[in-house]
């Protein structure tokens, strides 16, 4: 992004902070503006606010990149003048499970450096740590007074984290013994993250749609009781389907998988990427086709290549219909390695520049606090606080 481009925001404080940030922090992301491919019923016109967050789990993998981070950059680069963009490392959400403090501290830094490496521009987007903006937790408590316990009990997040069946309810004694309030009320904090910035659009994966619907429901409940404060945020659904494990292609790619060869990290070398993709589990059928149920490994490679080259599944299949699986893997590995190499190089450069990372985080948190505090002023006035 051109740091000299004209930027206009809705409120003066946000503008002032970002003019300051633009003068002090400049960065050109490696990703060209390809336009957003997110789907929504409402166009991203001016005076919109886009917010999204990601947990600090260390260096993201390929699924995180295709499903979220790359799309954030495209939204940023394609946003109209006047659109507010806020992207957060949601470190408070990480506390729903016990954390080792030094490890979490390093994971926060790694995730923040990655957001810059993939192309988020601190002169255009507020990039910040959730815990640096106290209004997130302040609104969380207030929303807890209107959030529905019944709705929360039906959410899948706490059940999947505790490895409980989806039909589990709070009457289950095993569930009650395992469940902690933070994990149960996780969606309320997520709603606060979104609503405290009066977000109108939230980029999410399909599996996060339920959480956004809860945010809309909670906003509607508050507005009904205290007046129209919060817009009802719309989901911007990522076009990227789940990226699957290279070793168990029926499972989503995850850093929790015991085999490191099952995933590509954005910090992997080209040689590591080639080795992992060449070793991906596929099958012995000679003809190439897209069939996630019967050929999940091959279908995963087709999906990945399609996203990197902007092609449909049918186009990829047509291109490689007379090629071997070995040739497909080689092509996918080359394309992924070439696209991720600039991100890897920038990531390590940012990790070595602690002062720069802190400067960007401070600028982002200042802008985010200003935006959030404006919301909290309205909320407190409506509540009589």
Distance between the termini: 42 Å
Shape: globular
CATH architecture of the largest domain: 3-Layer(aba) Sandwich
Oligomer: single chain
Uncertain runs are 1-46
- CATH fold description of the largest domain: Rossmann fold
CATH class of the largest domain: Alpha Beta
The radius of gyration over CA amounts to: 21 Å
Helices and strands, in order, run as HEHEHEHHHHHHEHEHHHHH
State the share of residues found in helices, binned by percent.
Answer: 40-55%
The total domain count is 2
Give the class from helix and strand content and strand pairing. mainly alpha
Strand content bin: 5-15%
Cross-sheet strand order for the largest sheet: 1-2-3
Sheet bearing the most strands, described?
Answer: 3 strands, parallel
Can you identify the CATH superfamily of the largest domain? HUPs
On the 0 to 100 scale, the average pLDDT is 86
Number of helices: 15
* Number of E-type strands: 5
């Amino acid at each position: 992004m051109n740091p000299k481009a004209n930027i206009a925001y809705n409120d003066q404080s946000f503008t002032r902070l970002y003019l300051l940030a633009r003068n002090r922090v400049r960065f050109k992301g490696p990703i060209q503006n390809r336009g957003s491919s997110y789907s929504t019923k409402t166009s991203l016109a001016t005076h919109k606010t886009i917010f999204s967050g990601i947990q600090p789990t260390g260096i993201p993998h390929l699924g995180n990149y295709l499903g979220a981070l790359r799309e954030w950059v495209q939204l940023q680069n394609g946003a109209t003048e006047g659109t507010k963009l806020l992207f957060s490392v949601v470190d408070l959400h990480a506390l729903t499970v016990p954390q080792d403090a030094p490890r979490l501290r390093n994971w926060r830094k790694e995730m923040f450096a990655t957001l810059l490496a993939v192309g988020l521009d601190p002169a255009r987007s507020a990039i910040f740590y959730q815990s640096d903006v106290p209004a997130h937790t302040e609104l969380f408590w207030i929303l807890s007074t209107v959030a529905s316990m019944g709705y929360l009990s039906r959410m899948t997040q706490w059940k999947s984290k505790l490895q409980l069946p989806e039909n589990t309810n709070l009457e289950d004694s095993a569930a009650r013994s395992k469940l902690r309030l933070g994990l149960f009320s996780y969606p309320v904090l997520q709603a606060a993250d979104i609503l405290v910035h009066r977000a109108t659009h939230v980029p999410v994966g399909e599996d996060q749609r339920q959480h956004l619907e809860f945010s809309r429901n909670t906003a509607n409940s508050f507005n009904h009781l205290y007046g129209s404060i919060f817009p009802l945020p719309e989901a911007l659904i990522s076009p990227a389907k789940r990226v699957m494990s290279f070793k168990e292609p029926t499972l989503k790619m995850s850093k929790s998988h015991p085999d490191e060869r099952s995933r590509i990290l954005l910090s992997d070398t080209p040689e590591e990427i080639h080795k992992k993709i060449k070793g991906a589990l596929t099958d012995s059928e000679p003809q190439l086709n897209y069939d996630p149920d019967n050929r999940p490994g091959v279908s995963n490679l087709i999906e990945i290549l399609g996203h990197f080259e902007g092609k449909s599944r049918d186009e990829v299949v047509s291109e490689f219909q007379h090629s071997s699986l070995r040739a497909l893997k080689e092509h996918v590995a080359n394309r992924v390695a070439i696209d991720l190499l600039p991100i890897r190089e920038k990531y390590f450069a940012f990790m070595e520049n602690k002062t720069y990372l802190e400067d960007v985080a401070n600028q982002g948190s200042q802008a985010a606090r200003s935006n959030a505090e404006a919301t909290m002023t309205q909320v407190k006035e409506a509540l009589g606080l």
